[in-house]
Amino acid sequence: MTTFYLSLIISLFFLIITLKVFFNTSRKFKNLPPGPQCLPIIGNLHQLKQPLHHTFHTLSQKYGQIFSLWFGSRLVVVVSSLTIAQECFTKNDIVLANRPHFLTGKYIGYNNTTVAQSPYGDHWRNLRRILSIEILSSHRLNSFLEIRRDEIMRLIQKLAQKSYNGFTEVELRPMFSEMTFNTIMRMVSGKRYYGNDCDVSDVEEARLFRGIIKEVVSLGGANNVGDFLGFLRWFDFDGLEKRLKKISKRTDAFLQGLIDEHRFGKRNSNTMIDHLLTQQQSQPEYYTDQIIKGLMVVMLLAGTDTSSVTIEWAMSNLLNHPEIMKKAKNELDTHIGHDRQVDEHDISKLPYLQSIVYETLRLHAAAPLLVPHLSSEDFSLGGYNIPQNTILMVNAWVIHRDPNLWSDPTCFKPERFEKEGEVNKLLSFGLGRRACPGENLSQRTEGLTLGLLIQCFEWKRIGEEKIDMVEAKGITAGKKTSLNAMCKVRHPLKINDVF
Ligand code: HEM
Question: Which of the listed CATH numbers 3.40.190.10, 2.30.30.240, 1.10.10.60, 1.10.630.10 matches domain 100-364+408-489?
Answer without folding.
Answer: 1.10.630.10
